[in-house]
Design goal:
- By secondary structure, this protein is α/β, with parallel strands linked by helices.
- The chain has helices spanning about 10-25, 50-55, 60-65, 90-95, 105-115, 160-170, 240-250, 255-260, 300-320, 325-355, 360-375, 375-380, 385, 390-395, and strands at about 5-10, 25-30, 45, 70-75, 85-90, 100-105, 120-125, 130-135, 135-140, 145-150, 150-155, 175-185, 200-205, 205-215, 220-225, 240, 265-275, 285.
- The strands form 4 sheets. Strands 5-4-13-14-15-12-17-16 form an 8-stranded mixed sheet.
Length: about 400
């Protein structure tokens, strides 16, 4: 094939796919519906399985410059602040997995990747409306009446993917009953608070609150998930209020309330749950990232799995450049079991984090405190299957993608 690959969606997954494909000798073009690349979003967690892939692509130094490195992942009791468990990250991730654990601002990572791709590989104001296979390729239609032809189409267009809808029909997501709030606070606004460089989750009855530093430590990212029966808008751009968030966490530990009082703009969005798709590919069209496997945020793997997808897809296409359908079958066969497992774990964690009945809360906390005190290494190693994963090695080590 001529090696021209169209990617709909210029988010983290789409940009990483373009960079991995270009490194493998393809000619990717990313089509993004936004009119300009603006700094949007909030903090994201990049576990070693994701940072390893970005380092393999050659962006280790750039990533390090925008990141904050947490020393531990910890959970604390909502009212007393007593630690439930603490798992080391920092140096342990480097020693155990050979790659760091980072917190970054989504906009910082997006800027790093888009600058690496360059303007020649990115088309803005390009809203996809449909596609059709044509000859030995795919023609993509856009809202302005234009169209583009390529050998393959990758739908990296997010949780409300047009590519997925056209290929497989409309979906029926389920409202999870939870709403997430997010806020990014300048670090200077919380200077007097005893905040450690950790991923800290406060677990309370039916809800939880998470905070960690991003942007090299210059900002604090906050995410709160609370139950709701009325709010059901699945949009990152809907504004909430500090007062609304503070009311949700009335009676919680003073540190949680102090962090909330330091917030400025607060956004909220309803969390929808989706079952794993039966398939991702149709002919010369495939899906990637949230378009393929939208997942609840309770495993902090959304961005990481999109990055893994990108690396494996580029590898499969490199190995089967003259058999694109074979490449897409291999990609889906490799990736789907892992992402489906993470989707299910994220769903389970939603229940684990939000226990409300006191006997179950006591059992959960007692078990985790026991493991933390007497089986700390076992507790830390429970993430080996996730963090030690090398998507490039799993797909094929000799693709020319390595750094």
């Amino acid at each position: 094939m001529s090696r021209r690959i169209l990617i709909v969606g210029g988010g983290i997954g789409g940009l990483t796919a373009a960079l991995a494909l270009r490194r493998a000798g393809f000619e990717p073009v990313v089509f993004e519906q936004a009119h300009a690349l603006q700094p949007v979003g909030a903090g994201i967690q990049l576990s070693p399985n994701a940072t390893r892939a970005l380092i393999q692509l050659g962006y280790g130094a750039g990533l390090r410059a925008i990141a904050s490195s947490p020393q531990a992942l910890e959970a604390r009791s909502w009212r007393s602040g007593r630690r439930i468990f603490s798992t080391p990250l920092g140096e342990r991730c480097l020693e155990a997995y050979g790659a760091p654990y980072y917190h970054v601002h989504r906009a910082d990572l997006h800027a790093l990747l888009s600058q690496a791709l360059g303007p020649e590989g990115l088309r803005l104001s390009a809203r996809c409306t449909g596609f059709a296979e044509e000859g030995d390729g795919v023609r993509v239609e856009f809202e302005d009446g234009s169209s583009e032809w390529g050998d393959l189409l990758i739908g990296a267009d997010g949780i409300r993917s047009i590519t997925r809808t056209v290929a497989f029909g409309p979906e029926q997501p389920r409202f999870s009953g939870n709403v997430a709030f997010r806020a990014v606070i300048p670090a200077r606004s919380v200077e007097g608070l005893p905040l450690e460089r950790n991923t800290t989750a406060w677990w309370g009855p039916g809800k939880h609150f998470v905070h960690y530093f991003i942007s090299g430590g210059s900002q604090l990212n906050c995410i709160a998930v609370v139950p709701s029966r009325t709010w059901s808008v699945e949009s990152w751009s809907t504004e909430g209020t500090r007062e609304e968030l503070l009311a949700e966490f009335e009676g919680w530990h003073p540190l949680v309330q102090a962090v909330i009082r330091a917030t400025g703009r607060v956004f909220k969005w309803a969390l929808y749950d989706r079952d794993p798709l039966p398939r991702w590919s149709l002919g010369r069209v495939t899906l990637l990232g949230d378009a393929a496997h939208p997942m609840l945020p309770f495993q902090a793997q959304g961005a990481a799995q999109a990055i893994e997808d990108a690396m494996v897809l580029a590898s499969c296409l490199s190995r089967h450049a003259e058999q694109p359908r074979v490449a897409l079958e291999a990609y889906e066969r490799i990736r789907k079991p892992r992402t489906s497992r993470i989707q299910e774990i994220s769903r389970h964690n939603a229940q684990l984090f939000h226990l409300a009945r006191q006997p179950r809360v006591l059992l959960r906390d007692t078990q985790l405190r026991f493991l933390n005190r007497h089986r700390s290494e076992k507790l830390a190693r429970r993430m080996d299957w996730l963090f030690a994963h090398d998507p490039l090695a799993v797909a094929e080590p000799s693709t020319g993608l390595g750094a």
